[in-house]
Write a structure and sequence with these properties.
Blueprint lengths: L6 H4 L8 E4 L8 E4 L19 H7 L3 H25 L5 H24 L8 H30 L4 H26 L9
Antiparallel strand pairs: 1-2
Helix pairs in contact: 3-4, 4-5, 5-6
Amino acid sequence: MTRPLSAAARLDLDDQRCTPVPEPGAATTVITLVRPPVEGPRQTAPAPGRPGGGVARLLRREDGIGQFLRFVAVGGTSMLLYGVVLLLLQDLGTQPANLAGSVASTVLANELHRRLTFSAGGRVSRLAAQLQGGGMAAAGAALTALVLAWADAVAGDTGAATQLLLVTAVTGLVGLGRFVGLRWAFAERTPCAA
């Protein structure tokens, strides 16, 4: 007579990487599946029917590549929010609409980076994420403004195309710096032994 498996044993019967282990104090026919420890970054299996899993597989990686791809995706999402807010509040004037769009997109990006990009929802508070991410965003905006002011003082009116190119280059460098800074700020820390 076969006894039914416990709920824990039924979870991943098809996963061949699991090792059946008898539950303590239970009949030998009731087992729990235990995964062996994973070495290095968590890798997920490709989607069924898709060799390699493609972009979705890359986005699920927990190493620097997966984090960077999620960082870029979150940046794109927050830029969409910025654009919507800017358009909706355009009647208030350019600067107030820009400020509102910047604040809204930064708050969204910081929360998405905390939860998705760096999987830090359990170890970094919302307030800490907003303070750290917001501080880095403010520093980046200040650096961009300084570079534009410097270029204007040194070269005079360089034209819209040159300014756009300069802002794009500085924003790219600031974004890379922000990725590195947030990756460090949201990193998992192991307490030191005394």
